[in-house]
Write a structure and sequence with these properties.
This protein is of the alpha+beta class. Helices cover 43% and strands 19% of the residues. Helix 3 runs parallel beside helix 9 (157-163), helix 10 runs antiparallel to helix 11 (186-217) and helix 14 (351-364) packs across helix 15. The radius of gyration is 34 Å and the shape is elongated.
Length: 600
């Protein structure tokens, strides 16, 4: 055989071997963490930095006739060294690092939240790889294949060491060039050089054309609308197999970088809100419930089914928990249409069943006209509705919402809230709603749990937490804007140094009182000072919103330039119009029944 045929056969075989070996190595390394990762990666990348003759020498030690492997193969009639398979092995080893590193880099560029979303939708690890990771990393994989092909085609040193220079058997084009130059035949050498350059350029160009064609060939698939008789009633919720009560019981602990997260949570037929500042452990709680992160210890039980129990070593994978997750950044698969995103979890259904279920959810969320568009072609509010429809399509046993409106502007937030409220009205399972916005939590949840640095500092019905927050952190998270230090001076009396006054309380003042709070919208303006806890006040400054005014007030005496206000009061525009016509000072009352008696 001529060097051209030997080179083409060797390069094709080596590229195929490198493709699969590089993909497997990159996928395995993708999940590896810890100190050993750098060492493993260094070993896999080593042929890229070593001189090819050194790599060839090591291969000769492994596959040579005097090696253990070489002698074992000779016993079965196989010889690797100085044979055509040796050229393939040498080219594969030399080209492997390029394929591995490029593919690993492409995998690491894929948003990991997309993989977690796929797992939460019931996809196995193989399905996650095949349907999400590989398609999104496709350009990088193609680039790695091209680089591996080019490197295998030009391999010389390792091939010469392991396979030798046997015309018609192992003499590839690079070796033929070396032999021609060594023999003084520069014309033959130039011919082989031109062939290598032309072949390399042709393959690279062909792969680029195929890549471009594959992009252009993807036409938006039309999802046919089901016949009216096929459609599910849009107001009917999925029927559960059992009539047993729906419950989610969580008791978990996990050590994080800054604190240890301890969470005890119970949810039934309704929404429980996890309220807390950023970094308090809210999202990690959802990840542990969904099976995307593993707790150190604890137990999760959903509708009587144990999902996690550290005591018996049970940890049900996320794909089998049947828990829907709406992620903060939507986590829509960019290579799939809206309809394909919604139907991602329905792969086991028949085509007609899947089509009906998808259209049902699209129409419930008011996005049926977007069925054949891609996520990049729709707005943020529409993406969030797609994410909700995708979760509801799988008919989950529980639903987790991780700050679903954080990325939306106020107008879109209101519209999407209405769509979500309608979807939750048809959902009979436990719902856990994570937010740092008290108003969102109040609108969607009946029960609230307040987290601060990994601890549950308050829990109970939302109205009770709002009226009696008990702690400073809870009061702040539930929107109280007037909180100052205070001390108990009697059973129903507290002294507030910052406000230069004493206040009467309608309830007994606790011994451990450290602060007092008063909500800005509950400050009452009076015409006289007859009521208890009524003081004179002057206006320091104002701040205007579309429907209300925020007044910053100083009590007892007219403020001097630069003096800070004592209180913040939120009033309607109508109240402000009346107040602005009245001479100062005004009278304000801090209702004894509305004082928030707090501990730090």
């Amino acid at each position: 055989m001529s060097p051209l045929i030997i080179s083409v056969a060797t390069t094709c075989a080596a590229t195929a071997a490198t493709f699969f070996l590089g993909m497997v190595a990159a996928r395995l390394m993708y999940d590896v963490r810890g100190g050993f990762r750098a060492w493993i990666d260094g070993i896999l990348t080593l042929p890229l930095v070593l001189p090819p003759t050194v790599v060839g020498f090591f291969l000769l030690l492994i596959f040579g006739r005097r090696s253990i492997i070489g002698r074992a193969l000779e016993h079965v009639g196989l010889t690797i060294a100085f044979s055509w398979p040796a050229t393939v092995i040498a080219a594969t080893v030399i080209a492997f690092p390029l394929m591995y590193r490029t593919t690993l880099g492409a995998f690491e560029q894929v948003n990991p939240t997309l993989l977690e979303a796929a797992r939460s939708l019931g996809a196995s690890e193989w399905a996650v790889f095949r349907r999400v990771l590989l398609p999104l990393a496709g350009p990088g994989v193609i680039a790695g294949t091209v680089l591996a092909f080019a490197r295998a085609l030009g391999e010389f040193g390792a091939t010469l060491m392991l396979a030798g220079n046997i015309p018609g058997h192992t003499q590839t084009m690079p070796i033929a060039i070396f032999s021609a130059v060594e023999g003084g035949d520069m014309h033959a050498a130039l011919l082989w050089v031109v062939l290598i350059v032309v072949l390399s350029l042709a393959i690279i160009r062909l792969l680029n054309v195929e890549k471009k064609t594959s992009r252009m060939a993807r036409v938006e698939p039309e999802l046919p609308r089901p016949e009216p008789a096929e459609q599910l009633p849009t107001a009917v919720a999925p029927v559960r197999e059992t009539a047993s009560p729906v419950t989610l019981d969580v008791d978990l602990e996990r050590t994080l970088e800054k604190f240890t997260l301890r969470i005890v949570l119970g949810a039934g037929d309704g929404a429980v809100g996890l309220l807390g500042p950023s970094g308090s452990g809210k999202s990690m709680t959802l990840r542990m419930i969904a099976g995307l992160s593993t707790p150190d210890r604890g137990r999760i039980v959903l509708n009587g089914r144990v999902l996690f129990d550290s005591g018996i070593g049970l940890n049900v994978p996320a794909a089998r928990r049947r828990i829907g997750v709406v992620f903060q950044d939507y986590a829509l698969f960019p290579h799939l249409t809206v309809a394909e995103n919604v139907g991602f979890s329905l792969a086991r259904m028949t085509k007609d069943e899947r089509r009906v279920r998808i259209w049902n959810q699209l129409e419930r969320m008011g996005i049926a006209e977007l069925a054949n568009r891609y996520p990049r072609q729709i707005s943020g509010g529409q993406r969030q509705r797609v994410a909700i429809a995708r979760c509801m399509a799988m008919e989950p046993d529980a639903l987790l919402l991780d700050e679903p409106f954080a990325a939306l502007d106020p107008h879109l937030r209101r519209r999407t809230e209405e769509q979500l409220r309608a979807a939750l009205a048809d959902f009979s399972g436990p719902v856990v709603f994570v937010t740092h916005d008290m108003e969102e939590a109040f609108r969607f949840c009946s029960e609230l749990q307040v987290l601060d640095s990994g601890r549950v500092i308050a829990t109970g019905p939302k109205h009770r937490l709002f009226e009696h927050p008990r702690t400073v952190a809870t009061a702040q998270l539930t929107g109280c804007k007037n909180i100052v230090r205070a001390k108990r001076v009697g059973d129903d009396c507290i002294e507030v140094e910052a406000w230069e006054c004493r206040l009467r309380s309608a309830e007994e003042v606790p011994e451990n009182l450290t602060h007092v709070g008063f909500r800005s919208h509950q400050i009452a303006f009076q015409k006289s000072g007859e009521k208890e806890n009524t003081f004179l006040c002057w206006l320091v400054t104002t701040s205007e919103a579309p429907h209300e005014m925020t007044l910053y007030l100083r009590m007892h005496c007219e403020p001097l330039p630069g003096q800070a206000p004592h209180l913040q009061a939120d009033v309607s525009k109508e109240v402000w119009r009346d107040l602005s016509r009245q001479p100062q000072p005004w009278h304000i009352t801090l209702d004894p029944a509305r004082l928030l008696l707090l501990e730090s």
